[in-house]
């Protein structure tokens, strides 16, 4: 009976969010419409990523992005689709994208109350070989809809209203939190709908995997060097951890969320602020990990307590299972 109910009573992401938002009747329609436009962007990128090898979409577009990296054609395309979908939703007033140096202020006739920060296609080094990549997003509410300013996003991650990511992997999966639990939806390509497949995700309290670009080890600080050494040569009688590193934040964080463990992108002597961007990488992922029962730490403070001074600012981040992050926090306080 329950299998039958499962197959005929489909919990789509729209239905799920409508149910959740029914607690806030005033924002219900607007938030759902905004989310539907984000979902549309994800479906487009998913289809483009799947066709990329065939359609020769892959290749350099001859432009560099804000961070001076070469932009792939898929990045450009994905960014355009997201920006257009978000603006046309009529529910946004300010957009921050990894691919745009300046924030985008939506013209008054299309303005709504939401702000979206996003990385339309993260994990660019994995595009050409078909390894998992993803989209990351965070949503805020503007203070004054008539007058959105950068200060509306240059605030701590605690003011984020919702966050999520979509992973373009062996299946297309969207993970979302609107403040309470974390829920995972899988795209059913035959329906074109995201269906709830992983309700109420909780990250294991402790994990057996660590995930870091160990090629940077010579530049690490003492706390991280010690931590990674302990992963390999535990001193408490436990077995060593396994190393898994894809180099796509969405894929590495997704695995960490489901299997437990820790994902690290530390600062190093070359890049004192690490690599990952606070607004559209560190904040949304920290938000999701915390809502799932884990922790996110920068080496100095809780990641969501950071207050960025500019929209593309970077920060080190260590996120994952509660106990594993606790161990890093202890190493940093011992070093003080
Ligand atoms: P990107 O925005 O150019 O794709 O860079 C971000 C990616 C993350 O997805 C990933 O966690 C990290 O860069 C990997 O960096 P590295 O190659 O230095 O290990
Ligand atoms: Mg990125």
UniProtKB/TrEMBL annotation:
One of its GO terms (biological process) is fructose metabolic process. GO terms for molecular function: fructose 1,6-bisphosphate 1-phosphatase activity; metal ion binding. It catalyses: beta-D-fructose 1,6-bisphosphate + H2O = beta-D-fructose 6-phosphate + phosphate. Residues 203-332 form the Fructose-1-6-bisphosphatase class 1 C-terminal domain. Its main location: cytoplasm. Residues 11-198 form the Fructose-1-6-bisphosphatase class I N-terminal domain. Transmembrane segments: none annotated. The keyword Hydrolase applies. Pfam families: FBPase, FBPase_C. Its EC number is 3.1.3.11. The keyword Cytoplasm applies. Its cofactor is Mg(2+). Keywords: Carbohydrate metabolism, Cytoplasm, Hydrolase, Magnesium, Metal-binding. It is found in: Cytoplasm. GO terms for cellular component: cytosol. It is an enzyme of class 3 (hydrolase). NCBIfam families: PRK09293.1-1 (NF006778), PRK09293.1-3 (NF006779). Belongs to the FBPase class 1 family. This is Fructose-1,6-bisphosphatase, cytosolic. The lineage of its organism: Eukaryota, Viridiplantae, Streptophyta, Embryophyta, Tracheophyta.
